[in-house]
């Protein structure tokens, strides 16, 4: 029995196992990993445009702009540039399509940074914006594959593969938001600790 078979064990106890089980369930296979690696050059070629478009989108909506503005209400360009750098790193890591121990915990750390951030502009990132940002990313990648790959079948295969992997990523990123509730101790041990 894996840690993920017990609903009381947080997925973070075995993130690599958690991602691999989800990959199997979602049908993410070696062919998908190969399609991602084959399309990585197109993604990385457009990394700057993609990250800029995403953060420009965030700035258009007050609910998300609040995470990227300074005390004067103007966009904090230094902060945005750091976030774009982090997003670009995530794209590069994801383009390797390797569900390793290191990658799994990299995703968990990113998710915790978003879900438990009680400091800085805007505070904690609401989970609905994590989901919506992933949707924006999927849409942008589909357009990149359409424009860059030249072959509709290859573009579709890349888009399908990236969609699977991005939703695996989203699951890992949301772990910080979706940890199962702790069960309070019962019996004599519960009364002794009170």
What distance lies between the first and last C-alpha atoms, to the nearest angstrom? 33 Å
Structural class: mainly alpha
Q: Determine Rg (CA atoms, Å).
A: 19 Å
Overall tally of structural domains: 1
Q: Flag low-confidence runs.
A: none
- Architecture in CATH? Orthogonal Bundle
- Give the tally of β-strands: 0
Order of helices and strands: HHHHHHHHHH
Shape: flat
Q: What is the average per-residue confidence, as pLDDT, rounded to a whole number?
A: 88
CATH topology term = Globin-like
CATH top level class name = Mainly Alpha
Tell me the CATH superfamily. Answer: Globins
Portion in helices: 55-70%
SS strand fraction: under 5%
Total of DSSP H or I helical runs spanning 4+ residues: 10
Main pleated sheet: none
Structure description:
It is built from 10 helices and no strands. It is mainly alpha-helical. The model has no long low-confidence stretch (mean pLDDT 88).
Question: Summary?
Answer:
With 194 residues, this protein is mostly helical. The chain is 68% helix and 0% strand.
Please render the helix and strand layout as text.
Elements: H1 15-26, H2 30-45, H3 47-59, H4 62-65, H5 77-94, H6 101-115, H7 127-148, H8 152-173, H9 175-178, H10 188-193
Keywords:
194 residues, mainly alpha, Globin-like, 68% helix, flat
């Amino acid at each position: 029995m894996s840690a993920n078979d017990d609903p009381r064990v947080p997925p973070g106890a075995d993130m690599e196992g958690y991602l691999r089980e989800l990959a199997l369930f979602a049908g993410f296979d070696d062919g998908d990993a190969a399609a991602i690696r084959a399309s990585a050059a197109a993604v990385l070629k457009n990394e700057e445009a993609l990250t800029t478009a995403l953060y420009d989108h965030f700035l258009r909506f007050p609910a998300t702009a609040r995470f990227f503005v300074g005390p004067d209400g103007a966009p904090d360009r230094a902060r945005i540039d750091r976030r774009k750098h982090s997003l670009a790193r995530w794209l590069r890591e994801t383009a390797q399509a390797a569900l390793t121990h290191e990658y799994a915990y990299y995703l968990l750390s990113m998710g915790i940074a978003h879900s438990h951030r009680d400091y800085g502009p805007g505070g904690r990132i609401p989970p609905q914006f994590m989901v919506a940002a992933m949707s924006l990313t999927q849409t942008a990648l589909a357009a990149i594959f359409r424009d860059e790959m030249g072959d509709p079948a290859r573009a579709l295969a890349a888009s399908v593969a990236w969609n699977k992997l991005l939703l695996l990523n989203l699951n890992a990123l949301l772990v910080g938001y979706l940890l199962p509730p702790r069960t309070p101790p019962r019996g004599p041990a519960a009364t002794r600790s009170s």
